[in-house]
């Protein structure tokens, strides 16, 4: 999920706009700061309008040209405003921070900016417009027949997509839902282990990569060269270093590596148990080799980062939350209302009138981009969301997550424009994730009518019951596999950017080396993948969005949840006592104490370093894995028992 920007490149270059008063002389730092924020608000508003237009309408040449012109113009504005700011010498803390946030951008020429914007538009068009098409009479046994049968979205005069007489599927959400088992069988039911189903999954997995990867490969190589040129002119080693600078963590590589090492033992246990059940399920499948790697198409996700579809196979339970969720028959608007209800119960802002009138809930009309996005339009009370939500729990997560971005925008809106984007991108991603963790509380599931209240009663000395374990395992299968995936995504790109690996000869083979090494998965296809470009199958790659923000947000969300729970129960973060309940049982619904703490932290926007914001929320200035490991402690014990009893080998 991401904020609604045209591209991450633009968020670094910043949009340029030749406002007629940009060159006016300012007499003091105060006047400079005021002018900066007035102009930046207009620039951001124009950029947001173009971003919304490009996300909700078919790609128009005129829109692309306006985006290019705006990007070029704003680079000029940034250079002028930063040059003037550095002439003032000593500035107060707010002015200095504004100068730092604005003026560390890569420095590309006008022509380079035009080419970068064109390349990004081309890659995004491939990702969002590509459809994998089947002939209507295609049988599952004929799975190779349409491997390269792809098309790009076409519209008729009425703005409706043209079917061309065949069944065509988008990557998101169509193929993604097939991989997640939302079409083939009922969700969260033990798998059928059908080899016909396996062939369909393998076909979907491989077709999407063949469709979007090769067309993007050459463009991304050009993009790297151009972005590196701009980053080096700004004093960075490469564009990867510029991306990392945004997070303001000097030892970021070391921190990321250590956090991954902290959670790696838990991941290896989940991997071992899942592999055990899958091998028993697909005993006839030759894809399971002795090396212990899991075929990527069987884990339940297009990118192997979410394994929740296997929870019922690993730990069957009489309660099927997903089925109950579907039975409620909520629309996407209903889901948004329930998300708003949770936030507002804590005293956080309700969504604006503009939000309800202008957001897009579903693939309607000409909307082609179905990846969840939240937009700050930099206009009074104008915040919007795009999501092709249905009525699943994963759809609810997307809406809660994107609404977290909007809550952050709303609370930071009292800050000067330059500080309204938040303290850093990882914190922006963590807000909605924190609230979603809180909404998965068994008490709130009872409140929503999805769970019988009898499952609030403990069955053992640890205060848990069978449903607690099923819910914790479901959450672990969602959250933990996402960690090595997000680790690989940016480690891979950082190594491409600094030329640790040779793009022309090693780009895809190195990607699979990392996936095998860190995720323990392998390609299900026997074709030679050396010259392919499988990383392009993920939205954030074509959108040029750094992924380490999601890696860090995963850890931050558990830390913030723990801090909000302490505040809610004890009234302070200083209380040395442990929480009186397991962390996943802490109910934040209606907690004004927790809401006030969240408002205090988020209202700072980007005016303070992230460590200041983290200390307000958790009492600590350091990002840690401790809260996450505490949350999943009961599952570690459960996995240990499974591994011991079934003599399951761990590792690969």
List the helices and strands and how they pair.
Elements: E1 2-3, H1 8-13, H2 29-56, H3 61-86, H4 93-102, H5 110-129, E2 130-134, E3 150-152, E4 167-170, H6 171-179, H7 195-233, H8 239-245, H9 252-281, E5 294-295, H10 311-314, H11 321-327, H12 332-345, H13 353-358, E6 360-361, E7 373-376, E8 383-387, H14 393-412, H15 425-439, H16 442-447, H17 466-479, H18 482-497, H19 503-519, E9 521-522, H20 539-542, H21 548-570, H22 592-602, H23 610-618, H24 626-631, H25 633-646
Parallel strand pairs: 1-7, 5-9, 6-8
Antiparallel strand pairs: 2-3, 2-4, 7-8
Helix pairs in contact: 2-3, 3-5, 5-7, 6-7, 7-8, 9-25, 12-14, 14-15, 15-21, 18-19, 18-21, 21-22, 22-23
Q: What fraction of residues sit in β-strands? A: under 5%
Number of helices: 25
Q: Cα-atom Rg, whole angstroms?
A: 24 Å
Structural class: mainly alpha
- The span between the termini is 31 Å
- List unreliable stretches of 5+ residues: 3-22, 136-162
Mean pLDDT, nearest integer?
Answer: 88
Shape: globular
Residues in helix, %: 55-70%
* Main beta-sheet strand count, sense and barrel state: 4 strands, mixed
The main sheet orders its strands as 1-7-8-6
The tally of strands reads 9
